[in-house]
Design goal:
heterodimer; A: alpha/beta; Elongation Factor Tu (Ef-tu), domain 3; Rossmann fold; 2 domains; 5-stranded parallel beta sheet; 3-stranded antiparallel beta sheet; 5 helices; 10 strands; 28% strand; B: mainly beta; Sulfite Oxidase, Chain A, domain 2; 6-stranded mixed beta sheet; 5-stranded mixed beta sheet; 3 helices; 7% helix
């Protein structure tokens, strides 16, 4: 896992939740492109957080080979639906599975930097504590932000947080009640997003208030 | 303006795929990734209809009526704008020609509409003459809700977001009205061979 801050000579600005394309070109002209969620707030330099996938082509390069001063080609920002703007003052529900935390982290940083006081609940499902990305910053106490972790595979001794896959009961415990009119962003692997989004609809969230981003098993 | 990325050699995956079948910027996958903007709708079949809306004169089919229409089996390559392509996918569906035959119209465009509020725009000629279907089966099985079941549009020659999941009908139009992703910066037409991913490509 590596967060890369990009110095973008030309960047039209982005919104929290958008992504960008990275294009790599080899000496012989061969190129490979992948999409990455933007991990930083609109008012910060553009950053991406890349998870290294063993059989990947782009992620091993970005996490291991890329050095300060190297140039990579970007295109973006892309997407305009899975975005949060502080003008929306509904309570926020953020639900992340694994590296699905990345665009949600951009929203949290945007909230802080724009001095929004929208109340936020974040539910973050990870395999183990070591797999929690941005843990130090998520653990920083912040007014109006409640963070709950669930560790699905391995829990440290004395772990008092949740220790199971997100199920309906857990969702009901964490999610704002439907009548609060919350806006939900759900990001993670397909099966995770599928379960959470369906669960929220079951809890009474209107489907249009549940915005999802699914990571296919092939993102590399 | 591409420039060489220092130290990048790439790892061309030898999937055995015929490179002439893979559009620029795409890679071949064996999986079937899922991408959608919201929760998966679950419309019961007895409430499901497929409609062609054409001003006053349209036509609507119940699930039973729709399934009684002649269907076709086809094996096609699909190309997602997020860069995966999947070759030789096997579908069964009703040709849009079969549906349009039953409606009098002089429209030039169609706006597909879906459960969940998703829309996408298509020139009518791109969904005519055997180029598009309303698919209800994938790989010999009823289409999974995650992949757009009970029925999705299948327009394999355009990027796959045009193959709208949970499709419920087409609105025929004289003019081209952008659909959901098309209003969020994606290309209005979406030809993978010309790499029309985003507006301006």
């Amino acid at each position: 896992m590596r967060t890369i801050v990009l110095d973008t000579p030309v960047w039209p600005g982005h919104r929290a939740g958008q992504h960008l394309d990275v294009r790599l070109t080899a000496e012989d002209g061969y190129r490979a492109e992948r999409e990455y969620s933007i991990a930083s707030a609109p008012s910060e330099p553009v950053a991406i957080t890349v998870e290294r996938l063993d059989d990947g082509e782009v992620s091993p390069y970005l996490t291991e080979e890329l050095r300060r001063g190297d140039e990579i080609e970007l295109r973006g920002p892309i997407g305009g639906y899975f975005v949060w703007d502080p003008e929306d003052d509904s309570p926020l529900l953020l639900v992340a599975g694994g590296s699905g935390i990345v665009p949600l982290r951009a929203m949290l940083r945007h909230r802080r930097r724009s001095e929004s006081d929208v109340p936020v609940r974040l539910l973050y499902s990870a395999r183990s504590l070591a797999d929690v990305i941005y843990r130090a910053e998520l653990d920083e106490p912040a007014d109006g932000i409640e963070v709950a972790y669930t560790l699905t595979r391995e829990q440290p001794p004395g772990w008092t947080g949740y220790a199971r896959r997100v199920d309906q009961e857990l969702l009901e415990e964490i999610a704002w009640p439907a009548e609060d009119g919350a806006l939900a962003f759900v990001c993670g692997p397909t099966s995770f997003v599928e379960a959470v989004a369906n669960g929220l609809v079951e809890l009474g969230y209107p489907p249009a208030r549940v915005k999802t981003e699914r990571f296919g098993a092939t993102g590399s | 303006m591409s420039f060489v990325s220092r130290g990048f050699r790439g790892r061309r995956r030898d999937t055995g795929a015929d490179p002439t079948r893979v559009p620029p910027g795409q890679y071949v996958t064996e999986d079937f990734p899922v991408l959608s903007a919201g929760p998966t709708p679950h419309t019961p079949l007895d409430e499901w209809t497929f409609s062609i809306e054409n001003g006053g004169g349209g036509k609507s089919w119940s699930w039973e009526e729709f399934r009684a229409l002649p269907s076709e089996e086809m094996t096609v390559d699909i190309h997602c704008v997020t860069r995966w392509s999947k070759l030789d996918t096997a579908w069964e569906g009703v040709s849009i020609d079969t549906l349009l035959e039953q409606v009098e119209h002089e429209a030039a465009y169609a706006l597909a509409f879906c459960d969940g509020g998703y829309t996408t725009n298509l020139p009518l000629e791109d969904v005519s003459d055997g180029k598009a279907w309303v698919a209800f089966a994938y790989d010999g099985e009823p289409l999974d809700p995650e992949h757009g079941g009970p029925a999705r549009l299948l327009v394999p020659h355009l990027y796959f977001w045009k193959s709208a999941k949970w499709v419920r009908g087409l609105t025929l139009r004289d003019d081209d009205e952008p659909g959901f992703w098309e209003t969020y910066g994606y290309h209005s037409y979406g030809d993978p061979w010309r790499e029309q991913r985003y507006a301006g490509d």
